[in-house]
Amino acid sequence: MNKTCEDIIRKNEELKLLSNLEDIYLSIFHYLKKEFKINQLEILLKTIDKTDTLFKSNDNIFDKFLNNLKFVENENTQVHFIIYSKIQEENDFIVENKPKLKLSLEFFSSSLYNKYLEKSIHELSIVDPVTGAFNRSYLDVYVDNILSISNREQKKVGFLKVGVDKFKAVIDEFDYTIGDKVLIKLTDTLKESVRISDIVIKMSEDEFLVILLNVINENNATIVSEKLINNFSDKKVLVDEDTEQTLKKTICVGMSIYPDDAINVDDAIKKADVALYEARNMGRSKYYKYSEESVNTIDFF
Predict the structure, then answer these.
(1) Residues 134, 127: contact at Cβ < 8 Å?
(2) Element (H, E) at 95
(3) Looking at the structure, do residues 48 and 104 belong to the same domain, yes or no?
(4) Which of 65, 121, 152, 237 would be a feasible disulfide site paired with 91, CB 3.0-4.6 Å?
């Protein structure tokens, strides 16, 4: 085995040890920049029905010279390395060294794609397939870490349990397809209404959990609850494309604050459940903050 092959294999083994896809993209780019004087790179993943941009080294690409190197991963998937050059000299160097470049990327594309598959499979296991929200598996694995950070930084965390008012009536009057549309619309509304650092989790058929990080006090959670209720009440779900019939639904929200109301995640969720129950008893589009007094007055049966 010659030194060129040894270097490529060694670099590929380094890539396999990286756990983050972004780190893999950057490592490949830096290698190409060093070995082949490549300053602009775009990595695409193409399947039968779509093309995803995995990496783009520059926002503004100068494409006077372009080399597209394609690697087939399976019958439905290709990885494309698109190399852009500003000047003739850069392009000439790439063309001159293309055999080594292709050999390098043949190794790298397989490692990159395998890591991409690992990430995709992992995401499928923690994401609800209908709504795109995280599911309870995400809650089980990751949320304890959030409370650890909260304790270390002495920050509060808000737990908002969100339930669709009279959701069963949607299924009874229409069907599960329309029910799914309502849940998708709600998921999108929740995500749009909170910060990117906050977390939206689908907990059951018609209930979600919104976790608010770094809450200053109860008033912050109340403001967000009002925002969620108001924003969703304005949304329309298309029921029939031919008649343009639409449906509007409402939600209630139950709130608990960690560590004020709870000692752990399960406790916080249970108390947000209690608060949601009380909110629903008050009518549609209501919110309620958990309190010890409410536990003594709520009749669940």
Answers:
(1) yes
(2) helix 88-96
(3) yes
(4) 65
Provide the mean pLDDT of the chain: 91
Query: Across 47-101, where does the E strand assignment appear?
Result: 51-56, 65-74, 77-85
What CA–CA distance (Å, rounded) separates 207 from 194?
17
What would the pLDDT profile of 149-183 be if each residue is shown by its tens digit?
788 778 899 999 999 999 999 999 989 999 999 99
**156 shares a domain with 55:** no
Q: d(Cα 144, Cα 22) in Å, to the nearest integer? A: 25
Domain of 82, in residue numbers: 3-126
Q: Which two tokens stand for residue 187?
A: 């998921």
- Please, what's the b/e burial string for 65-96 (b: 16 or more CB within 10 A of its CB; e: otherwise)? beeebebebeeeebbbbbbbbeeeebbeebee
Q: Which of 76, 102, 126 is the last residue of a domain?
A: 126
Whose tokens are 């043949």? That residue is 106
C-alpha count within 13 angstroms, C-beta hemisphere, residue 147: 19
Q: Are residues 121 and 161 in the same domain?
A: no
- Which residues 6+ apart lie within 8 Å of 31 measured at CB? 11, 104
DSSP string computed for 118-134: HHHHHHHHHB-TTT-SB
Of 84, 21, 79, nearest in space to 52 by CA: 79
Query: Structure tokens of 40?
Result: 């602009």
55: which 2 tokens?
A: 């990496």
Q: Which of 126, 161, 195 is the last residue of a domain?
A: 126
